[in-house]
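Hi F.,

I've been meaning to write this up properly since the lab meeting, where we talked about keeping a consistent format for the predictions we share between groups. The idea is simple: the sequence comes first, exactly as it goes in, then the structure tokens exactly as they come out, then a line or two of notes. No screenshots and no reformatting. I'm using this chain as the first example so we have something concrete to point to.
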Amino acid sequence: MDPEKKINAKSESSSENVFQKSDFAQSEDIVIIVENSPAFYRDDISPTRFSRFKDLLETFVEDRINLDYRDRYFLMIFNSEILTPIKSFEAFSHQLIEQIEKGFDQTIAIENPTAVDWGKNFLATLQKGIQKSISSFKKIRNKTLRIVIFINQIPGITPNFREKLTQMVERTAQRLDIIIDVVFISGTQKALIFDYENPIKDICEMTGGDYFHVTKAYEMEEAFREITKKKEVLRKDYLGEREYTQEKEFLEIIASDLERITDVLEDTELKCQICFKKECEHVESYDIMDFYEHLRRCPNCKKILHLCCAGRWAEQQNSKSNFIGFPNVFRCPYCFYLLKVPREFVDFDNVLNQLQEKWLKKKDEEEVKLQEEEEKEKEMKSFFSEVDKLRQEKEKILNWLKHKLPHKNGRELEDTADEIVRIKDKDEKISFINYLKFKEHIDDDSMPI
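Output, unedited:
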């Protein structure tokens, strides 16, 4: 495809034109998807399609190593029954040829699969290829992500397949800027679907990739020459833009959350990889935030980060060139894994104010509760003091009554003492005792109170 057309295709696929300039220097992570089918072993491309493919792939390996040794690759083989992911992204070598020879077996390839079965397998394989690209993007920045698909048949296109394929590319591949190339090897066999109505060709145009329809040996060679070249990448520049576009929201979706610390760590392991301190310098008092609650770690490298440090790091890094451009999405400063921090922690001063207000409210509530408890304790002390005072008063009155009225039984004396104690006013108590002395003929000036 012409470079200018690629630019237009890329720009139209986004909600706005955020692409600024091209870059050929980035290394590439490439998912190679190869269909294993009986058609792959036909001899309409000499000596067979598979033999010619394997020879050209070996040359492709050598050329790519010379072009950029930093590139990484992932091989996937599929047919109507088998989906075989082989290893992970790794340094490219002739192991790929060994994997191809081991991974292909003509006996497991099913002749004439139905359009529905073939479509399901193709979509499942492409989805896994996109997932591998997302995994790569999360771990390493400034990578060109590519998927190169080799197919030997298109048994027919159902409306359901067309719709699902388009949705998959729009929702993931386009937003992550994955470039998809397709090599359709039909040989002399008549294709069941014309290129102009082929949705597999459409996804190449949607992602700025190339589509090759191979019918002859020299066309296969030309296709390999083109896919060997590095892709022109149009880099996004989000500088000065703070609105949340769909493209940038997608980055927040695929970014990983920081992990909470659930296991016991050594004291030396608790240093933040941003401020290199155990206690966060931005949090003046851990009374307002639990120490371990403020600690998080990268799920990839397990390095510790303070929440507020991560928020400030994300905001600062996103103001620079070549960074994510989404305020709370950032790369781990240690391993570059794609992470996100809760949005409120980007503006941590605001978080601190909220925490301070929450802390002050909690302190006020604690003080009120403490005062209530003190008042309650004071009331309880006063109550027990009053009870003890009444008990002593009753005991004194009862002893006086026993001395003055020895002929009375204990029950009567108890009732009389209780009656005197229940009288609150002192003068009334004295009047009651004087009346008792008159009634019981006690000729004595003594008083029990």
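Notes:
The mean pLDDT is 80.
The chain has three domains: 3-236, 246-346, 351-439.

If this format works for you, I'll send the rest the same way.

G.
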